[in-house]
User: What shape does this take?
Amino acid sequence: MRHHGVFLSSLITWLTILSVTRCQSICPDRCLCHLNQLPRTIECSNQGILTFPENISDVVENLDLSSNGISEITNEVNRLIDLQYLNMAKNQLKSLPNDINELRKLRKLDLSHNLIVNTADIASISQLPSLTVLYISRNLLPDLKGLTSEVLQAVDAGHCLIKELGNDSLNGLSALNTLSLTGNPLKSIRTPVSETLRWLDMSDCALNYLYPDTFIGFPELEELRLVNNPTLVYSTRYSTLEHIKLKRLDVSRCNLDRPGLHGLPSLTQARLSYNTIRLLPDRIFAKNRQLTHLYLNSNNLALLNASTFEGLTKLQILDLSANSLEEIHKLAFQDNIDLRLLNLSYNSLHRFPYLMSLVTTLDLSFNLINHFRANSLEDLSRIRSLYLKDNNLQSLPRSLNSRTLRILDVQRNRLVELHNDSFAELPSLQKVDLSGNRLTEAMNPNIFQNNLDLKIVRLDDNPWRCDCMQLYDTFVYLTEPPPKTVASTLICQSPANISGYSWETACFDEWNTNLYYPKDRTWGMVMISLLILVVLCGSVVSIKHTLKIKRRVLEQRRQMELTEERERLRRLQRRNQRIEEVEIEEFEAPEEIRINPLELVGPPSYEEAVQMRRLVHSMDALNEISIEDGTLRSINSMDNLRTKKRRTRRPRKRTQSEDDLLRREERRQERIRRERNNSSGNICDTDQLHNTNPRTSSARRARRHSIMDETLESSSSKDRPRPQTPTSKKRKRRHVLRNEHVTDDEDSDVQIMRSNRSIVIKELKREPKSGYRESYVERES
Ligand SMILES: *[C@@H]1O[C@H](CO)[C@@H](O)[C@H](O)[C@H]1NC(C)=O
Ligand SMILES: *[C@@H]1O[C@H](CO)[C@@H](O)[C@H](O)[C@H]1NC(C)=O
Ligand SMILES: *[C@@H]1O[C@H](CO)[C@@H](O)[C@H](O)[C@H]1NC(C)=O
Ligand SMILES: *[C@@H]1O[C@H](CO)[C@@H](O)[C@H](O)[C@H]1NC(C)=O
Ligand SMILES: *[C@@H]1O[C@H](CO)[C@@H](O)[C@H](O)[C@H]1NC(C)=O
Ligand SMILES: *[C@@H]1O[C@H](CO)[C@@H](O)[C@H](O)[C@H]1NC(C)=O
Assistant: This one.
């Protein structure tokens, strides 16, 4: 079984190869054979072949032997039983073989451009049972009489010598539906008969007059072409061509002075172009209710009345171009409710016609329109495309108003500028063509701000004056993707040095240095100024704040100093009392205390110095309190002055009171001793110590207690940290010194009680031999 299968398949392949080689081997010289494709074709056109080729493969379906010199088709052709299309155009044939019975599949036979002089010589076509199309154009046939075929549907007999189409000419062609007789010297038609003919072309003939019943013998005729019969007239004042079924009529380039279509009630398309029609009487097309396409272009129409196109309710295309129209009645197209295209181009309109129409495309190109009012489109409620090419418009109206307009073509007018609002009320605008005008300055892109659907803006061929800064926004608007304009069509005309360059080229440098940056720069400026503003605000606020703080601190300090001074005064007063008591008690020398520093002759003793200082201080304090708000500086300077005075006086005092010195020294030693015992003592310790001191009296103790209370009382405020001022710094330094060495003081008990806060005395441990060391008493807070 398996062997059998293999054998069979190999046999089949072998046979196929054989058959193919057979076919190829018999492909005629100078021919191209495409026998492996459908339809199987052999092409031998224009090869100078003079005789019908022999031994052609009988599988051929299309055989092309056109443009050769073949004068005869031999019986050989009968071998080609599969032949469907035989092209023998442009040969020297005078006839067909008498017997072509075997070409049973031949459907199309082209014998055009041969030398056939009589239909009798090709009468054998009647033997072809499948022939539907016959080309016999450009032969020498004077008539179609004698041509017979029951199946032939289409005959092209153009450019023959046919002068007449008689009532029996088409008798033999019982299936004919398409006949072309173009280019024949056909003059008269005498009611030829064909029950089946539907399409007839007699263009480029010499037809002169057609009687109303000329085509009565063609009851099925639907399309009649009579183009370019320069003298043809078929309609007179009294009669006109008639046909019940005719749907399409083309009588362009004839001699019609009127449409004459009222005998053709089924007409849907009428081409009456290039005639001499001047007048369209009212209701002239009233009978042509089926008319959808009416071409009246290139006539001499001058006027359209209100009722010219009345009744044409199905009219879709009305071409009135290339006439002499100057005025069109406003209601001329009111009946044409299906109108899609109204072509009024190439007329003599001077103003935009005020029309009431449902037309969607209105072509007003090539007129002389220079008036175009804003409300022109008001009654064109469905207008989508408006062509106004090649008119004389110098400007577009402001607020041109249409909700439906998509295309506005105003190329090649005289537009010099565009109004802000020309396009503002055209919300559906998609394309606007402004090329070939006289626009020099780039429009502000804002003029298109309401045209959100705008996709194409043509601006080429305008004499742009290239102010690059001005052009930039427009250019960006037009070319940002998807581009509305091809950038290369924007050409500068002036200034002279960039004339002929595109905007892009001419402005490249400027746009890339001055224009891209300004944007960034302005942003940068904005940012920087914002920053500066923020910084300024911040610093103002902080300065205000610090000032406030400073003021408060200053106030505080003044307050403190004031209270301090008051405190000092109070203590001083108390101490003065105390001192008096103590002095009376201890030394019985009260006069010493009242020493006026100015009265001192020698250097003051320690006690004296203390007294002096305090006296001065107390005076200062008094002074200050009395001044209340007086400047501290003046007081300080007064203080300094006094200290200076004291310094100058001291040496003298020293020399004079040697005795006192000794005595005082003794007392000092004693005090130091006391101090030392008590140096780290607290209040309790001091209490103990003082208790041990035999000299302490009850009066003293009482005093001590009062002072203690006082100190405790004031310590809360005095413990607060204070801002560092030069004086406070000085005080700190002194504080350190104070801890270094012990001082003696007649007021040491006070000092002990107040611990670190009491009177500190800074003094040399030993007196220098000569000269003096400044000794002064400093009170801390
Ligand atoms: C055509 O075929 C016949 C017989 O097969 C042969 O005698 C003749 O020479 C062939 N003609 C050409 C032109 O090849
Ligand atoms: C055809 O026309 C001829 C005259 O031209 C006329 O005698 C003949 O009767 C017509 N035949 C028919 C069928 O109309
Ligand atoms: C157009 O109508 C006017 C009156 O409306 C009339 O006088 C004139 O003859 C008409 N023209 C045509 C060509 O019908
Ligand atoms: C109007 O007619 C002119 C010439 O007759 C033609 O060039 C133009 O294309 C037509 N317009 C339209 C929109 O078809
Ligand atoms: C365009 O509008 C602006 C203000 O919107 C106006 O200043 C300018 O003059 C207008 N230009 C034109 C040509 O109407
Ligand atoms: C053209 O000339 C103007 C001044 O007349 C100058 O500002 C501009 O840069 C020139 N442009 C070019 C491309 O040379």
